[in-house]
Amino acid sequence: MTTLIKGACAACLILPLAAHAQTDPERNLPLWEIGLGGGALSTPSYPGSDQRETRVLVFPNIIYRGQVLRADRSGINARLFSSDRAELDVGFAGALPSDSDDVDERAGMPDLGPLLEFGPRLKVRLADLEGNRRLRLELPLRAVIEARGGLHGRGYTFEPRLAYEMAGERRVWTLETNLSVVLGDRRINRHFYEVAPQYATAARPAYVADSGLLLTRLGLFGSRRLNEDVRVFGYLRFESYKGSANRESPLHVKDSGVSGGVGVMWTFKRSAARARGAGTVDPSLQ
Q1: pTM of the model
Q2: Where are the alpha helices (DSSP H) in the chain?
Q3: Proportion of the chain above pLDDT 70, given as a percent
Q4: DSSP string of 175-191?
Q5: Cβ neighbours for 279, distance < 8 A, ≥ 6 positions apart
Q6: pLDDT tens digits, residue range 83-112?
Q7: Sign of CA dihedral 237, 242, 246, 251
Q8: pLDDT class for 72, splitting at 50, 70, 90?
């Protein structure tokens, strides 16, 4: 069960990018598509760590273009409202687990379990520019749940994000860059940075974490279609932890971190049924 949860969280990290690679603004798209995907990703063990977690993952590639339930560029979500300029959905995200025995600063402390994030997100199209370029704002609010020895609430995060997207004709290629800040309440900051008295050592003094800024993130995402059924993709994220609310924690040992990943998607089955109203919503909001 633990392995399944870890795999699901890793999929939550990479599937939104993979689905991004599959999104196409053409009208009359299949209602669903099924395939396989594979990829590798590497991230810091937690924000501010100088050690890393790396995963190689094979996962199902499922695209569903329902009126409410969606599996698309943003992962799995339920679309509650949509217009030409804005969309409100409820969706999922995830974060990899980290074993404390593999992280020097956390030696002897409890492991950081896989994190599942769930909550609403407002997406607003700010501008349509020439050459298939778009500017949008995303405002996701997520409840964070740790899956370790059961399910445990770990607070909330809020990540305002500004995204700039470019695409080739018929979306043969896509490129997106975005800038965001991640704010966390006291519980999620405690999860990463608090040192309870029983875990304090001479090199790791006790520390009480506070709410506030977790990190500032700059991301770059790209994909290219090789043929009708195969697309490759990759991403790179730079994160700055300078100015974070808990930079004085003994567990905060690095002021920046880089995440990255590459993968390939293969679609082998499509429905004869067409998505209702496909192409009527701006593709940057799908």
Answers
A1: 0.84
A2: 2-22, 186-193
A3: 85
A4: EEEEEEEEEE-HHHHHH
A5: 25, 26, 27, 28, 29
A6: 889 999 998 888 878 899 899 999 999 999
A7: positive
A8: low
Token pair recorded at residue 218: 């700059």
Nearest to 132 by CA among 179, 100, 171, 96: 171
Q: Which domains does the chain have, with CATH numbers?
A: 2-285 (2.40.230)
Token pair 């999104």: residue? 23
**Which tokens sit at 235?**
């991403």
Q: What is the Cβ-side half-sphere exposure of residue 221, based on CA atoms within 13 angstroms?
A: 22
Strands (E), 132-279: 133-147, 151-158, 161-167, 173-184, 212-225, 230-240, 256-270
3-state helix, strand, coil in the chain (%, to 5): 15, 55, 30
